[in-house]
Amino acid sequence: MTFLFVDTREALTELLDVLVSESRIALDTEFHRERTYFPRLALVQVAWSDGVAIIDPLAVDIAPITRIFGDENLIVLHAAQQDMDVLTHAVGSVPKRMFDTQIAAGFLGFSTPSLASLVNAELKISLPKGDRLTDWLRRPLTTGQLSYAASDVEHLLELHDRLRNELVDRGRLQWCEDACEELRTRKAGPADPADAWLKQKDLRGMKPRTRGILASLAEWRERRAMASDIPPRQVLPDLALHGVAQRDPSSVAELSQARGVDDRHTRGAIGAEILEAVKRGRDRRADLPPSEGEELDRNLRPAITLVSAWISEVARTNDVDTALLATRHDIVALLRRDEGARLSGGWRRDLVGAQIEDLLAGRSGLSFDGHGGLRLISASTEVTSAEA
Known about the structure:
This protein is of the alpha/beta class. Helix content is 45%, strand content 12%. It folds into 3 domains: 4-184, Nucleotidyltransferase, domain 5 (2-Layer Sandwich), CATH 3.30.420; 193-282, DNA polymerase, domain 1 (Orthogonal Bundle); 298-384, DNA polymerase, domain 1 (Orthogonal Bundle), CATH 1.10.150. The protein is built from 16 helices and 9 strands. The strands form 2 sheets. A 6-stranded mixed beta sheet has the order 1-4-3-2-5-6, with helices on both faces. Strands 7-8-9 form a 3-stranded antiparallel beta sheet, with helices on one face. It is flat and about 70 Å long.
């Protein structure tokens, strides 16, 4: 495969001068975050109607790439969630228009397919196999590494054509566009450090005081990791986080006896910071949020299982990825009558939301269809298929 390697400001400007006039641009990123808090961009690959290019963000400022993020350019990606996060951190914005081929495939009977499997299924092309543990930040990159990176965008526009036509044929293009817009506008970047403690295990079994200390320590750890751009576990491992919270130390000597703590955690400023976080945590209220379903009226909780079963059936019979149609959170939000619940509007309501309303109102029920599936039965026992 022939591709352009861009590692100077002049070459990037020339490339962007070409791309801004393209109606569609395929894009992918390579990045690492194993040794950093924030994702570190290693490569940006693009393809357009007349070529493929690989941009090296270690050699050239990538910020001007936002020139192609306007309304005139549709950016085609595959499994774009992480790309959105990386671009948000690297250049502070994401495309105004995007099409995710993985989402599109979800409306055509695929279940979160990899790019390689989707290209093979739709285009009958086998992508080259690369080393998934490649260090994309190491320079120089080999020809094999660059060719593998370029293959991630080489067929995306052709794949977009194929998937778009299939979506149009099935009347689902708007569904896909709506789902892509949901992804595009989803909050990207790190979560609030004050909520970092909620990622820890065994919280419900802790005493309130211990949980408050853990919450305070986790927030401190997160902020220190962000400031130093290192993974939180390198500031203080989870074992030490729990060990310190349980021991509730008031001195460096007591801190040194907590499980998981070693000398680097007790020397200098870091030991004092840990003790200060413990002190703040003693009086901190760290109330656990209710688990999914706990906020529901007790009489409605069994409905979660019932609705989940019907959603799975509708997804199966209509060749829609269940993960696209509804999550457990979506079901609970609908049952709680949350404003803006995804199942109460748009294509989801068209496909399944109204049927769920009939179930909840007692106008319909579920029954086995005798062939391994479910069917919706009206109160008058009239049978309704899951198929749209």
